[in-house]
Predict the structure.
Amino acid sequence: MPSRKKAIVGPVDPRRSALMGRVKGKNSKPELAVRSEAHALGFRFRLHRRKLPGTPDLVFPKLKKVIFVHGCFWHRHAGCPRTTTPKTRAKYWKEKFLQNVRRDRSSLTAIFDQGWEALVVWECETFDRDRLSKLLKRYLSKKHRRQTEAADRLPC
Ligand SMILES: [Zn+2]
């Protein structure tokens, strides 16, 4: 289930975006699912634009919209059964997860500041293709979307 908690956003830390590649598996299965559904809906997009904050997974230049596909474990999908915490080296993991979450928030803020809209699609939301398609259609068809909706979907 997506988080509806209000996210607190902070400034961008470029050191953190450098770590992005390690956390985000490019061309991951969930990402391929999102691409395939967006394509089926007739939307054209580009991939992993490094020019944009956080290197969004899908970029729709004409719509000025981006999509981030987040793995539930790494990006800490709130309330999701996949968001487990390893029992060993708990401190290490806690710090690592905190960094990921902070960086995600910073990326969103920076994206909004540049006048783009953003949607976070969680890994577990890509399993049901019909629901995924509806989610994408709603987001991509909508003209004026509240920017904070994307931030609301991140863990607090
Ligand atoms: Zn999840």
Remarks:
- Helices lie at 14-18, 20-23, 29-40, 72-75, 90-113, 129-141, 148-152.
- Residues 72, 77, 80, 82, 122-124 surround zinc ion (CB under 6 Å).
- The CA atoms of residues 15 and 103 lie 9 Å apart.
